[in-house]
Amino acid sequence: MASIGSIFLGSKSVADATLLGNVNSSIAFFLDIESSIDYIYRDQEYGWVVEIKKSQQAIVARSVDGYAKDDILAIGFELAQRALDMLSIEKNVFRIIPGPADSYVILFERESELVLQSVDVLNMPIKVSMEFSVYDKDGRHVPPRVLPPSVWSPQLRYYRLSQTSHDLYESYKNLFLSFESLLYSICPRLKSEAEKKWFERALGVIDAKVNLQRFAPPNAISCISYIVDKQYVQTRCRLFHGKGELPATCGGTISPKLVSESISSLLEIWREIAKNYLPINFKGESIVTYGGFKMMMDKVFAKEVSVAYSEDSTLPSSNDTVVSPLGNLVFNFDNVEYLGETSLGHVALLATQKMDITSKYASIHRTCTFIGDTLYSLGFNQDGITPDGVDVFENLQTFRLINVDCQKMVCANVI
Length: 415
Description:
This protein is α+β, with helices and mostly antiparallel strands.
């Protein structure tokens, strides 16, 4: 059976299905710390089962029904949250899922094959430093202008709260409140003006002073329409406007992946606008653009790339150079494909391995990417992933641009 630690994820094996039940969709997220108890939540409305086990970090949501991969991520996360809500009431145990879009293991059907995919988002922190001096026409050094002191404004409160929250959704909500307040201070909403229309008008006013085009894909017809759709329609409205039910179509549930991508881009938009309109001095103004990051990563992955895994449970170290420091067996994925830019500031690598559903495999803890013979990245799963009973095992790695002076680091279960 496919499992995370000792928690069942699913299996194509008839024997496993007979013993453990038929599961066609499942997902494992990771708690902030190991669970102190065993707990099972059965959702009466939708039939999903959510399970955690003592001394493990994983929380697994599974269903007998087959769902599309994106729906498993969105609905599975919502039901995992419901389980934690119930856990807090029934057992007085309070846990969170930090970085739900950054580290998870998902089981889904694809063209009659059962696929087990480990997903890691790895931060690529980049810091750009530069110094310059100004000289007059006679070659004399001109002292730098002394900046006036920063002045507090209400928008800074929600900005700070967004950067200190350990909950992805709360972080986005606070950042959007700051963004909304910032726009209102620049371009107040008119009486009876529809909210969406106001956002479009306010961004139009700002775009005349601040070039917003770099925050939209090159093929976007309008950068303003793109930003409003991504931030307001797809993300803000679905987070702030609570639904009374969870539609089976996933219409009322928002994917943590979308929120993670949205908050990264909104943070850069917020800073660019605040820099031009608020009386504050920012730390660090040199950044790597999305286009520059894509070009850099394209060059990196144009070289020979391989991905390998091992049952070795040695904790990652900055001194690591090999897959298994203990000398355990190491296995290479059959195929590695560079997917290129998957969204602004993100590029991805997909490693694929065909499996024999009748074979038994060791639990996988370490997954390493090599450029030539050099270790480039290392993903680590504390509980261990056992890919038994599936047709395909995959590792999807997304590398995310982090401008160190502009963004907080997003914690994940990888280094």
